[in-house]
Amino acid sequence: MHYVLLYKETAAEVGKRADPAEADAYWGGWNAYMGAMAQAGVMVGGNGLQPPETGTTLSIVDGVRHVHDGPFADSKEALGGYVVLDVADLDAALEWAARAPCVSAGSVEIRPVLPPPPQS
Fold first, then answer.
1. Which domain holds residue 30?
2. What does the alpha-carbon distance between residue 33 and residue 51 come to, in Å, rounded to a whole number?
3. Residue 38, burial from CB neighbour count under 10 angstroms (0-12, 13-18, 19+)
4. Is 104 domain-assigned?
5. Which of 48, 49, 83, 88 is the 20 to 30 A CA-CA neighbour of 18?
């Protein structure tokens, strides 16, 4: 079964990416974690994301497009990346999520992926 892990990081965690004093440890933790999933053969794919301020949000209200810089919702955590796993069940997905470097400072949301639509 496929699950997506959505990695949510605080602004402080995202800031470590470019901080010379913390970047090596930050990226080292993520590289080790991603490497472990790849080596275990459970990672289908995924990507890290640029910081929230680089994003754009689109909504359409009464037929009119509204484009906003950055994420739509104000929150203390931002989506930092995602991975799609192919594992037996939710318990296995939870085990991988618990190992994410951001889980102690942010969170990891785990969601089952919708199955493909039936072919007609």
1. 2-112
2. 20
3. exposed
4. yes
5. 83
Domain harbouring 64, CATH code: 3.30.70.1060
Residue 102 belongs to some domain of the structure: yes
pTM listed for this prediction: 0.85
